[in-house]
Amino acid sequence: MAPRLPKESRERERLERLLTAPGASARKLLIHLGGAYRAFRLGAARKAENDVAARVAAVAQKETALEKLRAKMLAALPSNLRGHFIADTQIEKREVEDATKALKGKSKNGDQWS
After folding, report:
1. pLDDT confidence tier of residue 114, bands split at 50, 70 and 90
2. Helix 79-109 and helix 24-76, axial crossing angle in degrees, nearest 10
3. CA distance 57 to 70
4. Does residue 60 contact residue 100 with C-beta atoms inside 8 Å?
5. CA-to-CA distance for 18 and 26, rounded, in angstroms?
6. Number of Cβ atoms within 10 Å of the Cβ of 81
7. Smaller CB count within 10 Å for the chain: N or C?
């Protein structure tokens, strides 16, 4: 807040003095604000972890559905075309598997998501 105030204002001087040498009531307030900030940060981290877990679960569900569809399509094809179908869809299958692994890896490592 201090940078927003003009350099030579009384409010800025009071704020800087309060932060450098707080009185007893100001210390209590700063401790309380610090605790509130920590609680807010932990709550936000928990929410982010839950959001990432939900996204990972949705991707895994869609991966399973795609694999089932691929298996049904493979079963419906004549045997002479199955090899071509497998070869033609192998790249996409690997891409889905790699994306799922990467997503799960980031979730476990606690990486930030935007």
Report:
1. very low
2. 170
3. 20
4. yes
5. 7
6. 12
7. C
CA distances from 24 to 21, 31, 40 (A): 10, 11, 24
Q: Which residue has the higher pLDDT, 91 or 18?
A: 91
Rounded to 10 degrees, what is the CA torsion of 86, 91, 96, 100?
120
CA distances from 79 to 69, 70, 71, 72, 86 (A): 17, 15, 13, 13, 11
- Amino acid identity for residue 73 in this structure: M
- Kindly report, residue by residue over 57-103, the tens digit of the pLDDT: 888 898 889 889 989 999 999 999 999 888 888 888 888 888 878 87
Residue 11's CB is within 10 A of a number of other CB atoms, namely 12
The per-residue pLDDT for range 22-61, each reduced to its tens digit, is 788 878 888 888 899 999 999 999 999 999 889 888 888 9
Count how many residues are written for the chain: 114
CA–CA gap between residue 99 and residue 42 (Å, rounded): 28
